Amino acid sequence: MILNPELRRNFWLELSAQRLIAMPVLLGLVFWIVGLNGGESAVSSAALIAFHLIVYFWGTRRAASAIATELNSGTWDDQCMSPIAAWPMGWGKLLGSTAYVWFGGAICISVFFGANLGAFFYNGGASVLSLAVILVLIGLLGHGVALALSLMMLRKQKSTRRVPVSVCQIAGLIAIYGLSSFLFVEIFVTSLPSANVMENVLWFGGSVTFWTFTLATMISFVGWALLAIYRLMQSELQYQIRPFAWLGFTVFLMIYGTGLLYERLLSNAVGLYMWLALPLFVAVLAFYIAFFLAPKNIVLFRKWLAAFLHQEWAPCWRLTPVWFQSFGLLWLVGAILIVMLFSQDGPVTAGAQFFGIRLDEISAFYVLAVLLFVTRDLIFLLWLNLTGSKGKPDLAGAIYLLVLYSVLPPLLGFVGGASLLPIVIPYPTDNLLWAIGPVSLQVFFLVLLCRKRWSEISPQEPVFMKGKV
Amino acid sequence: MHRCKLLIRFAILLRKKEPEIPMASLVEIRGLVYEYPRFRALHDLSATIEKGTITALVGPNGAGKTTFLRCLAALEAPYSGTIKLDGLNIHSNPRLSHTQMGYLSDFFGLYDGLTVGQCLSYRAYAQELVANKAAEAIEWAAGAVNLTDRLGQKAGELSRGLRQRLAIGQAIIHKPKLLLLDEPASGLDPEARDDLATLLTQLRDGGMTIVVSSHILAELEAYSSHMLIIDKGHIVDHTVVGDAALEPESAALTVQLMEPHKDFEKILLHVAEITRVTDTAAQILLKGGLQAQRDLLKKLIEAGAPVIFFGPDKVNLQDAYIERMREGRAS
Questions:
Q1: Which candidate in A19, A71, A82, A386 is best for mutational testing of the B interface (most B CBs within 10 A)?
Q2: pLDDT tens digits, A96-155
Q3: Strands B178-182 and B101-104, how do they pair?
Q4: ipTM of the complex in this document
Q5: What's the first-to-final CA gap in chain B, in angstroms?
Q6: How confident is the model at residue B2 (pLDDT cuts 50, 70, 90)?
Q7: What pLDDT is recorded for position B8?
């Protein structure tokens, strides 16, 4: 008996007798036809392609649709009011909505292994098992990301209660084919573990076998995806939670990435302080992602402010937007880096580069400029969100920022205005005033604009916190 | 003339705002404020909903009825204020309060691919009812909404009225103290509306407290004991309506004569409180139950009054509502 009612309901809907018969019949027919012409290797490739199509493409669609289907059919309120806890609801949806997909995937992967038994035995049974686990974990990661993003979008677009399924599916596919293929390209290219794949991976200087590292990586990322689903579901089901998961994930990414780049940084003989360049980059990225995905509801802001002013710390912490925490972490990492850069002796190795930026050009002023430009963007985006336009302020903001950072600088260079670059982008310079002066002015004026907008849209009638909300 | 009669009748009902027998309150709403980003939808609402009542939540489109119901269902957190369900602050304890309430939104949905039995089974298990209790709950809910003979039928194959019944069956499967229904009768044919009225009355008689939102007042008239009028996010009126407004053993009656009779008013005044009278008709409040009604009719006939109608005087909720809305806006 299945105790999770959400999973059981999904099984009722997904695994009808007709569908359970149709999938193996169709797949069997495809593999048989392919096998007639191409033999075992063709069947192997067909099985892998089918696995990708069914589990990765169709699966991400199903996972991305799990919440949208409930919203469209008017059953989401009922689910929110049921006593099903966040975890069973989360994994019930994750595995339930993709149950049929996994049924097809299991057939494909069985055929794939059956067609490659010899090769697997040659490379050892452990790698065969690891490959199977990794393929499944990649699928779980993609589905998890799609479902987690759909829950985020539901929160973000609470008034319209619409989830952009295609966007969530694409995010799932990016997780699968972006992150996973970046790390395990051989699996996607050759289909089978090659000698190259078997090479060890260096992480913080320590040698780890490929399988151990990839398994640990995938398990970690799937774990974070599941945690995201759990926490977002808790939020939807009105658990009173304190947000920390995003900060945890950001710190995890900082440590994970720095571990991978350790050897490269070491070989460039850069100082220890330079290892904070990656965490700073991760913190910047995490802040923008958190901001664009978060709901920017003025009522929430008012509640947050009211809780703060009334020193109700528990609701204040609960209402603190994730992007605000990310912003705090960003300034913390930046401040540490600035202190380290000030205390360094002499320049770093000339020519060493990090994400296209010459490390020897990085100064404390430059890092400070980066922090101020992010602050400017934050206030600018907040101002757009407070303008009351019924359009899509975040999308508009993203386009403005894209133009500011990618179109204006080359345009200035083209017309001979390169000296004006510190006005539009963080630019390495030893002149403190020129590095942070223009951006500080922009921050100042945007703060004034934001304050004006805030007072314009605040209700005339005073509202007091009469009850804990 | 008819309209005037109704307004006078309604004025009497308003006088009897507080029922004679004090009833225990189930829901206490205090200072409820709800804000959307660009406007305030609910302005400092306070009200009390008593146990075992059916409250008709009425108001024009956009008045804030659905927002109010969603706040009552702890699906939306208000900006400020509290709602207590049997003493429990529902927004501090939304999960716990949900176990004590059922909610049916105006855009309710069903899993069309599931059978009626599976729908009810899912909801029973989702309500953490296990094994025997779940089976009992399914049987009870199916019986309550009269769907016992359709347990094997797919939800997607049901008519609008039957779907409505199944949705209510799902909402009440855990026997909640409070049932919130948002526009439950919209799209139903007259027979299905009548069934719904009967069902709600039965549920109330079973001890459930019900709040029904609608802007079609005719449908609420059949079963509502209270009316809560909301307009532009403010409570315009919260009053007892219909028979519930009367003292026990009291009846609101209309008496009509074929032609004037000289002692008509005198006879009525002797036994009843007259709310309106003309030469040939009167609306009265009569105490003493059926026996008193029989005695009065007998007395009229013995006096030679040509009675052509003697029966209950039903207030028209819609006219009363419109009048209160006008008064509210004027004030």
A1: A82
A2: 999 999 999 999 989 988 887 766 666 655 566 677 788 899 999 999 999 999 999 998
A3: parallel
A4: 0.82
A5: 25
A6: very low
A7: 39
Worst-scoring range by mean pLDDT, A66-75, A217-226, A407-416, B237-246? B237-246
First to last CA, chain A: 39
Strand-pair partners of B180: B103, B211
Q: Under a CB-based contact definition with an 8 Å cutoff, are residues A393 and A387 in contact?
A: yes
**Strands B273-277, B307-312: parallel, antiparallel or unpaired by DSSP?**
unpaired
Q: Hey, which residues 442-461 in chain A have their CB within 8 Å of chain B?
A: 457, 459, 461
Tokens of B139: 């049987």
Q: Cα separation of B228 and B236, whole Å?
A: 8
Candidates B38, B92, B105; nearest CB to A77: B105
Chain A CB within 8 Å of residue B310 CB: no
CA–CA distance from B285 to each of A393, B53, B250, B276, B313 (Å)? 62, 23, 7, 10, 9
B293 interfaces chain A, CB cutoff of 8 Å: no
Centre a 10 Å sphere on the Cβ of residue A118 and count the other Cβ atoms it contains.
9
Distance, in Å, from the CA atom of B114 to the CA atom of A228, rounded to the nearest integer, reads 30
Contacts of A83 in chain B (CB under 8 A): 95, 98-99, 126-128
Q: Between A26 and A459, whose confidence is greater?
A: A26
Full set of structural domains in chain B with CATH:
21-245 (3.40.50.300), 250-312 (3.30.70)
CA-CA distances (angstroms) from residue B72 to A216, A463, B97, B305? 46, 20, 10, 53
